[in-house]
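Bumping my old thread because nobody answered last time. Still need a sequence for this structure:
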């Protein structure tokens, strides 16, 4: 009949191949199929992702990208200015997935495909390179920034530990100084007490000695001949 030589009565091929052959036979047009240059981590011709809240698949064709089911998006390679691969906000928690932002030429807009499995990064990068698409991987910059931030945090932590250790050492030093001061005060006070006691004893012994000397002098004075009273002369009869 009409489609003789264009359609077969029986097909024993994968479903997508059968659909492509049927469309080709019915329309007489070339059917665009996924590129043989791309195979996903899960051996597929596209990757699972989303446009905003709409989940779907982004297929890598020979001359374009196609996102289905909705919103159905077709992007020709000839109209692509740059492709940027990035994490959501550069967050570590989002490291299992990444985003692709395709900016079109002449400032006509951009398309963002989110939540792509990190395992698809290498296959996609290789495909972009084969097709000569200008690509920027901001995840490498994010990784460097995260490493730098981690090192900075480690340095800050170590410096904090040093400060704490220094304070601890200072505390022990203060305690030593206090103990030294206590020893110093104790020794000084004891010295003052000893000096006071010795001074008291010496002054007391001196007064005692002076008193003894005074008594001795008085005794000597009383015993001296000069101090003896003259004896009364006895009257004798002549």
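Sorry it took so long. Here it is:
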């Amino acid at each position: 009949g009409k489609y003789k030589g264009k359609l077969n009565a029986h097909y024993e091929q994968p479903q997508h191949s059968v659909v492509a052959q049927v469309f080709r036979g019915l329309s007489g047009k070339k059917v665009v199929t996924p590129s043989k240059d791309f195979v996903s981590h899960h051996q597929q011709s596209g990757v699972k992702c989303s446009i905003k809240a709409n989940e779907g698949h982004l297929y890598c064709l020979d001359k374009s990208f196609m996102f289905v089911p909705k919103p159905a998006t077709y992007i020709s390679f000839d109209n692509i200015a740059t492709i940027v691969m990035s994490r959501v906000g550069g967050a570590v928690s989002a490291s299992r997935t990444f985003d692709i932002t395709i900016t079109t030429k002449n400032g006509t807009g951009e398309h963002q495909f989110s939540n792509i499995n990190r395992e698809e990064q290498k296959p996609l990068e290789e495909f972009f390179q084969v097709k000569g698409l200008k690509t920027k991987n901001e995840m490498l910059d994010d990784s460097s920034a995260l490493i730098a931030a981690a090192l900075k945090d480690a340095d800050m932590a170590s410096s904090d530990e040093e400060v704490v250790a220094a304070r601890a050492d200072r505390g022990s030093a203060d305690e030593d100084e206090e103990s030294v001061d206590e020893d110093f005060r104790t020794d000084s006070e004891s010295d003052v007490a000893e000096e006071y006691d010795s001074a008291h004893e010496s002054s007391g012994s001196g007064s005692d000695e002076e008193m003894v000397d005074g008594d001795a002098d008085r005794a000597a004075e009383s015993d001296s001949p000069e101090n003896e009273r003259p004896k009364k002369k006895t009257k004798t009869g002549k």
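The CA atoms of residues 159 and 165 lie 10 Å apart. Let me know if any region looks off to you.
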